[in-house]
Each structure stands twice: as structure tokens, then as C-alpha cells.
Write a structure and sequence with these properties.
Elements: H1 7-25, E1 30-34, E2 40-47, E3 51-58, E4 61-66, E5 75-81, E6 85-86, H2 90-97, E7 109-121, E8 124-133, E9 136-151, E10 159-170, E11 183-197
Antiparallel strand pairs: 1-4, 1-11, 2-3, 2-11, 3-6, 4-5, 5-7, 7-8, 8-9, 9-10, 10-11
Length: 212
């Protein structure tokens, strides 16, 4: 008769199987959800040649599927609540919310859905896709920097990914052509984003339909 395997043998086998499963999953894309508190969209636009008007938007939501070893598998879907735009002054914000510009009553969200993500050199790359803004959808590419992927140092210690992105667009491409003698056409975008790893699928984006 053969001796029964010892508890130590069972434990060793279990650890070996667990390590094998972990190795098999290594390199697979990880699903992250945008942290709306630590994610901010900023834009700059010329104000009559005197200065650059600056606005920020908080509260974005969305998901990212990302493998740090293979950026080409990444998929990004983000919704930005335009009604949360902060211009630093309530009256100025109301002017930007008006129909001549963002028309947030009819177009409360901007949305970006990626079609291609590339790693160019080191932690830098690009993400291209379609931006829907003011009811118009146009292609947009952004320069992308992966800042860090690590466990967040405070509870609940979730694995967190941090990115920075920049892009330039024309507001006239999205149907916003009013007051061109006062407000510039070129818009500089800067995005600082943190995303937390999800155990399963990230929550679906609550897309708000455009009102007509």
C-alpha cells in the first residue's frame, strides 16, 4: 500500500496550482473604474487675446481595460458631466452653459470612446477614439502618460492606475461657432485621471440621452 499524501504535500500542491493560475493570468488586461474624486478634466481657451480662460470638470465616470505590458489591448469609455463645469465664477459658468456654447440642457455629457491605444516610448503613448461633445461626434487623439500603477497607500488599499493626457480640439468642429471674435476656437485639454481596479466588471456608464 502507498502512504497517503501528507498535509504538507497538499499545501505545496495547492500553492503550486495557485501560482500557475496567477502566472496564466499575468499580462491579461485589468478592468479599472474611474475615480471621480481624483479625476479632473481641464481646458484652456483664449479670452479676447487677454488671457487663457480655464475651466475644470469633476465627476467623470467610466471604465478602462488595460494591460501595462500590452497597451494595444486597452479600451477606454468615459463620460464627462458638462453641467459640473467650474469656471471660477457662477455667471461665467452660466454663460458657457447657454445654448450658444455647451448647451448643457440638451447635451449634458461629453463622451470619449477609444478605438486605438499605443505605447510609444516608456510610459508615454497615445489614445485615439471618438469624442461626442455638443451632440457632435468627431475623432480625437490624446497624448498619454502612464504615471503609476500601484496599491493605493490608504484604505481600502485598492490597486490604482494614474494617467495624464493632453489634446487640442476646435470648438467649431463641434458646432460651437458663436462669439469667435471674443472666444478662441482652439481648446487645449488636460486630463488627470486615477482609476481603481475592479474585482469584476466596472459599473456601466450612466449615459444621459440628449434632449431635443
Amino acid at each position: 500500500m502507498h502512504d497517503a499524501p501528507s498535509p504538507r504535500t497538499y499545501a505545496t500542491t495547492f500553492i503550486a496550482v495557485l501560482c500557475a493560475c496567477t502566472a496564466a493570468r499575468a499580462g491579461e488586461p485589468v478592468r479599472y473604474a474611474i475615480d471621480p474624486v481624483h479625476t479632473r478634466v481641464m481646458f484652456e481657451i483664449d479670452h479676447a487675446g487677454f488671457s487663457k480662460a480655464i475651466g475644470t470638470v469633476s465627476g467623470s465616470e467610466g471604465s478602462l481595460l488595460f494591460d501595462a505590458e500590452d497597451w494595444s489591448t486597452a479600451k477606454l469609455d468615459v463620460a464627462v458631466p458638462m453641467q459640473r463645469l467650474d469656471m471660477g465664477d457662477a455667471n461665467w459658468a452660466m454663460a458657457v452653459f447657454a445654448p450658444r456654447f455647451l448647451d448643457v440642457k440638451h447635451y449634458p455629457q461629453a463622451r470619449f470612446v477609444s478605438s486605438e491605444v499605443k505605447q510609444l516610448e516608456g510610459n508615454r503613448g497615445s489614445v485615439c477614439g471618438e469624442l461626442t461633445l455638443h451632440g457632435v461626434t468627431r475623432p480625437l487623439c490624446m497624448a498619454l502618460t502612464l504615471n503609476r500603477i500601484a496599491r493605493y497607500p490608504l484604505p481600502p488599499f485598492r490597486r490604482t492606475a494614474g494617467f495624464s493626457a493632453t489634446a487640442t480640439l476646435k470648438r467649431s468642429d463641434f458646432g460651437m461657432t458663436s462669439w469667435q471674435s471674443l472666444v478662441g476656437d482652439s481648446v487645449e485639454l488636460r486630463i488627470e485621471a486615477e482609476l481603481t481596479r475592479q474585482a469584476g466588471d466596472a459599473p456601466a456608464i450612466a449615459v444621459e440621452p440628449n434632449a431635443h
